[in-house]
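Table 4 source record.
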Amino acid sequence: MATRLRRAQQRQALQRPTMVAATAIALLLAGTGANRAGAQTTGEGPILQDPPVAARDLAPPDQPISAEEIAFEAARIDYDQDSDVVTASGNVQVSREGARLFADEVSWDRKAGTVIARGDVALVNEKGDRAYADEMDVTESLRDGVIQNLLIVTNNANRLAAEKGTREGDIYVLERAAYTPCRVETDAGCPKEPTWQIQADRVVLDNARERVRYDNARVKLLGMPLIPLPGLRHSIGEEGGDGLLVPDVGYDRRNGFEFAVPYYWRLSSNRDLTLTPHVFSAELPMIEGNYRALLSNGAYQVTGFATVSAVTPVADPTITTTKDKLRGYLAASGKFQFDPLWSLSGSLRYVSDRTFLNRYDISREDRLRSTLNLERIDTRSYLSIAGWAFQSLRPGVSAGQLPIAIPAIDYRLRTTDPLFGGRVQFQANSLSILRTDGQDTQRAFAGVTWTQSRLTGMGQEVSITGYARGDVYHSAQNDLSPTVIYRGEPGWQTRGIAALALDMRWPFIGKALGGSQRITPRIQLVLAPRISNLDVPNEDARAIDLEDSNLFALNRFPGYDRFEDSSRITYGFDYRLDRPNFTFDATVGQSYRLTERATVLPDGTGLSDRMSDIVGRAQLRYKDFLAVTHRFRVDKDNLAVRRNEIEATVGSRKTYIEVGYLRLDRNVTSGVEDLRDVEEVRVAARVAIARYWSVFGSTNIDLTGANDDPTSTLSGFEPVRHRLGIAYEDDCLEMGFTWRRDYQTVGDARLGNSFQLRLVFKNLGM
């Protein structure tokens, strides 16, 4: 089964189930629409292709026609005074109230107030919508009447055909009608069957109530009448209306066959509700709801799932709870803009147990995060007052160890240095982290950053950065933190931080290989005194790893709780080659610590010794056909590859292959859970086998073994998930069938096969 995210996207495209066909009926039969000649019918329904049309200029004339008069243009006009009938023949054009009628012959009975048009009849509105017919018998207002063999072509190429169309007041009736938004001609101009069309014995449009009703409606797909739509009705106009949306069909080993039919309610012009019952062959049904609201200063939505089923513990998949229990998931998000500066955004996510999302294919996430953030942003300052909480879905993670941040405050102010020039940024930050069964930490600091850049006469770019900060910490229950180097000393602690950095780049540009190349040597000197890092807790600076992205950073730790307190020199170079349709760029660098004192950086980070490992990145691109990115880290002592990451895409939009490979072999210090080694490969591909048909597939394989991670119990070749399918997509239809196999059992989310059928009618919801 496809994830609910994909389903939600499909539903969003159909939230206003108003058909272009119905809108066209209202436009054209109301006299505000249409063009020329006769739609023919066959035993299988009206023909949607354009009829042969004699050369005729259907563009409206320059001068408007008043609402009180009917204007005629024709090769010949005869008037019978006795019967008061005007007959026009030969390329006739009749205009009134913005509607224009074209025909070979038009008779206007002024006493009866009727207009009869015959031969290559067309009705055109000011929007460019056109109606073709063999004969039209309408009132002199060109509104009420009867049209035989009707074909409507709207200005966005949607088509509606009927054997007969009538109007009386606000009621429109079409007999044996067909609607399609699809192409009815090949690129060579030859007629073709539309990919899909809706056919009905009778269509009734109530323009006053803005509702359309279909009798015996069915969808004809790829020339075959496959899907009956009994009782189909919907709203027209801008506001849309209530109704069923596209169903979802699937199968997996745990829940069996699934059939889901969303129903949409338009509660008001700015609120709607979608309820989706999910019926399973092997489990009790599940209900899904989605409520959305658009307000004058923001928007929000709430989504929920609820069912009753047994729960299997994550630690032991062979054990199942003895009785069913209520299970579900709640997700809410929104943002409100109070004025140009102040805004409030947030999200709430909660699930009843660790395996619900995986089992019902709602999400593959292993951690949920709820947030609330009040922000003020202007051109020079930024203020954030936030809070967040986590819910872990990983096996073996204690809920009591998960942090809750209330509050997290950050304020920044940027200004210009009036004395020495350059830019100055002031920052004040505070954070309070609470745990129900773990270490509690509170932190506050104030800091200032000064930066100035200059360009020398020889073309060197020189930047000077000064940084100073004062921290205050308080922590309790430090012994409950499982990693010793993250605990810090309990109680109150203070820390001062200072650093000065000089950074120089010297770009050299010239011609090479039929293009241009740029070589930019770079060197950086950082001076920083020793800091009591281990005296304070580490909550936000744990997952450190030397990469090309942080090689020249002032602090290579990812957060605030740790600061790299070593004086060092970092050196490297950037290279870029540009040729027509071809680009190659690369970065390589290394750093050297000037002091011999011990560092808080653990083994495996590439920074624990005085001389760091060598890191780099290379990117190659050829047109839109080939893109390759390689990131690496090489051991300084034996040149062993400690990080090897490759992302490659080859092919066109229709036929391509994507490959991703990652291997981290860092010899990490034991007990540092944020720096474990892994190895994995990901492959995805799509191949176009015909103009609209393609086959696709993907695989994800975990190659981590005991050699990579001593704590791993994997064999070194563990498939995670495979996917294979076939898809069809043209201008108005998406259709696909997907097989997926999961190889891992997590609680009651079992390994096994699942299947999903996807069908999307484009341009159906407007």
